[in-house]
Amino acid sequence: MRCLLIEDNAANAYLVEVLLTHRGHVVSIARSGAEGVAFASGEPFDVILMDLKLPDGDGCAFVPRLAAATGGGGARVIAVSAHALAVDQQRALEVGCSAFIEKPIDVATFVDRVEALAAGRG
Q: Is the whole model's pTM more than 0.85, yes or no?
């Protein structure tokens, strides 16, 4: 599976990258929403993991731009954020995220969840 991780925190990005690559997935990392949109417009991804608090703006504002960059199909956008109030989760879903994973992530189940969500099973 090809994954785009949009995450500005280096430690969080490293952890997710290690977990996913250990299971054989290919991970590209963008450090901002704008960089993520640029990545998404240039390469096909199966899943986009999106932090909601980014240095260049609210992650939710970039979700429609990601959909436009990918032609509106293919990659599922999954919000991964410590902003885990019900209102935050609802907003992420309303702007086009297909799911929400809370931080801190559970390293024992994270990859299984991402794989299931990417396949439409979650």
A: yes
